[in-house]
Amino acid sequence: MKIIRWETEISDYNLDFVSLIDQTPPIFKVATDSGALFEVIMEPGIVGPYVIADEEHLTNYWVIIKSIEKKIGSTFIIEPSNLASRFEILVDSELYKHYVVATSSSCLEVLSIEPPEIRRGQK
């Protein structure tokens, strides 16, 4: 497994999970260590399935990240992804990339054709 930095506005922050708004599109809210809120927007048709994993799963990523000399940050891409194999209904799975937004206690893992949109949130 290879972990690659996904350059975003929140890459260099320590993040905390705030909420998941289960609507269309789903919105994953995070807060930076300075208190700024951000939303990860998962647009249907671009973003495929997603999962929220707990700290135990996240620990596996941190072990790999610590062995990499380059700074990865809180947003990264997994290559090759084994996440697609968990979703049998996913058509053309080779078109999707595996994006991760890691917080202090969980991580959002998204299969997406294009990077999910990240924008400043509102309180």
Explained architecture:
- With 123 residues, the protein is mainly beta.
- Helix content is 10%, strand content 42%.
- It has one helix and nine strands.
- The strands form two sheets. It has a five-stranded antiparallel beta sheet, with helices on one face. Strands 2-3-4-9 form a four-stranded antiparallel beta sheet, with no helix packed on it.
- Strand 7 and strand 8 form a beta hairpin.
- The longest helix has 12 residues.
- The chain is globular, with a radius of gyration of 14 Å.
- The N and C termini lie far apart (37 Å).
Q: What's the helix and strand layout?
A:
Layout (H helix, E strand, L loop, with lengths): L1 E4 L9 E7 L5 E6 L4 E5 L5 E8 H12 L8 E5 L17 E6 L3 E7 L4 E4 L3
Q: Which sheet architecture does the biggest sheet show?
A: 5 strands, antiparallel
Which structural class do the helices and strands define?
mainly beta
Rounded Rg: 14 Å
- β-strand amount: 35-45%
Helix content: under 10%
Shape: globular
Side-by-side strand order of the widest sheet: 1-6-7-8-5
Order of helices and strands: EEEEEHEEEE
Number of strands: 9
Structure annotation, total helices: 1
